[in-house]
UniProtKB/TrEMBL annotation:
UniProt domain WRKY19-like zinc finger: residue ranges: 52-75
Superkingdom of the organism of origin: Eukaryota
Listed Acidic residues bias regions: 116-125
Name of the protein: WRKY19-like zinc finger domain-containing protein
Pfam families tied to this protein: Zf_WRKY19
Annotated stretches, region: Disordered: 103-134
Length: 134
């Protein structure tokens, strides 16, 4: 294989291939951008190693998520529950982790991270208590 010596650009040449009737086929050179294959960079680093756009907030060195802001300063999606400003993701149906868990498990999140079972409304029929043998 013949490869150019450039760091960022190279040409890959296919090997000569013999076919059954003895005719040689040659493939045209394929030009590709190795830098693009490695991922985009900013300030010499990829996003996961500190590249990307920094937050617009003064003295913040975090990577901007959206609108030029990091999570801490309002970038990214927020929870769909009114009044909740926690970060949210599409995979959790635009809910923060607390509200997503509440919906999944039927528990209500209480301030301080504790959870308790939802109270049954008074107009709903409560299940009968199991009989005790004593």
């Amino acid at each position: 294989m013949k490869v150019a010596s450039s760091t960022w650009w190279t040409k890959d040449y296919a090997f000569d291939m013999e076919v059954a009737n003895g005719v040689k086929l040659q493939a045209a050179p394929v030009e590709r951008n190795i830098k693009a294959d490695a991922g985009s960079t900013s300030r010499g680093f990829c996003w996961s190693h500190g590249g990307g756009t920094k937050c617009k907030n003064d003295n913040c060195e975090k990577i901007a998520i959206s609108n030029g802001l990091c999570w801490a300063h309002g970038g990214g999606k927020r929870c769909a529950v009114e009044g909740c400003r926690r970060q949210a993701y599409e995979r959790t149906d635009n809910l923060c982790n607390n509200h997503y868990q509440e919906r999944q498990h039927g528990t209500m999140v209480v301030e301080g991270g504790e959870t308790r079972e939802d109270d049954v409304a008074d107009d709903e029929e409560k299940p009968a208590a199991p009989p005790t043998d004593q």
